[in-house]
Amino acid sequence: MASSSSKLLVDKHVAYIQALAKNKDDLAYHLTTHLRLNAIYWGITALHILGRTDALDRNDVVDFVMSCWDDEAGAFGANPGHDAHVLGTLSGIQILVTYDALDRLDVDGKRTRVVDFLLSLRNDDGSFSGDAFGERDTRFLYCAVSALSLLGEREHLARIADPAVAHIQRCRNFDGGFGTDPGAESHSGQVWVCVSALAILDQLNEQTVDIPLLAWWLAERQLPSGGLNGRPEKLPDVCYSHWVLSSLAVLRRVSWIDGPLLERFILAAQDEEGGGLADRAGDMVDVFHTLFGITGLSLLGYPGLEDLDPVYCMPASVIEARGLRKDWLALPRRSA
User: Which residues contact residue 145 at a Cβ distance below 8 angstroms, ignoring those fewer than 6 apart?
Assistant: First the structure.
């Protein structure tokens, strides 16, 4: 149901996220089995940005994360019994970091094993695969870099930096954007993972990114409705409020889009009855768009929200506590 509200319906969204863990008889619950751990990361991050850190039981969440451990591979799958993948592994680590529970990896050598798993995904050209089956994507490179950074593996990051940066450069296009692989079309999601990986590796500079050209390409993603799209000639979608804005935040160019117009687009996608946000007004809500609508509002400085770190897509306070937040401030910290 489309929203006519001009305010963020915080209590509705909290209740929506809380209900997701309980509705196990719902068809959507079973259709999303393959991304359960990702969905939990989306939900708890949204709750933390909303300032409702205790809305889910911490121990229950952490126990579920550990139940997704694939002991054969030494990393996390998307659900208990699923094969390990870099996407699930990053989400698992993000959740453990958010709840200050990384010590759960100190049992039975899990921390060492998960680092070994991440490093095993490297390819000779500097790219990363998602799992043992070898699919390559700049998303997977970002996931590995982000996970290693959250684990404090600075020496390993330094070791992989040069080939990883070289691969990212090969994925850069004439329009300033980045694709999934060399020669692939620019997409704002891929722009975010590449720019953020470069930032983590301390390689975000005028040699690796054409900042004015890329910022212009990102600003061009805003449509008359106020919403942002992922690439030219596509419909606006609430999730790009994160991919585009976070990239602009890292580049210090958030002001290049019309913030109030985007805010109205995001708020119109709320479900006033059941909570949650959809891709656009009138569509079905889901936890993915709920998170990225809320993070977009945070980056715009919406009142009452916690600050987001645009590189890690985690609460800024959590990243600061890890000593990882650098100088890519979207806005002065409002809730430090």
Answer: 157, 160, 164, 197, 200, 201
Query: Which tokens sit at 156?
Result: 């390993």
The predicted structure's pLDDT at residue 30: 53
Residue for token digits 């121990």? 59
Which residue in this structure is represented by tokens 């400085």?
Answer: 301
**pLDDT for position 6:** 84
**Residue 22 has what pLDDT?**
78
Residue at 275 is within a domain: yes
3-state helix, strand, coil in the chain (%, to 5): 50, 5, 45
Q: Considering the domain boundaries, does residue 272 fall inside one?
A: yes
Low-confidence residues of the chain, pLDDT below 70?
1-5, 24-34, 326-336
**170: part of which helix (H) or strand (E)?**
helix 154-170
Q: Which two tokens stand for residue 21?
A: 């863990």
Give the domain CATH number at 276: 1.50.10.20
Who contacts 200 (Cβ-Cβ below 8 Å, separation ≥6)? 145, 146, 149, 157, 311
Look at the chain and report how many structural domains it folds into: 1
Cβ 268 vs Cβ 2: under 8 Å: yes
- 286 membership: H or E segment, kind and range: strand 285-286
Q: Please tell me the distance from the alpha carbon of residue 267 to that of residue 322, in angstroms, as a whole number.
A: 32
What pLDDT shows up at residue 229?
98
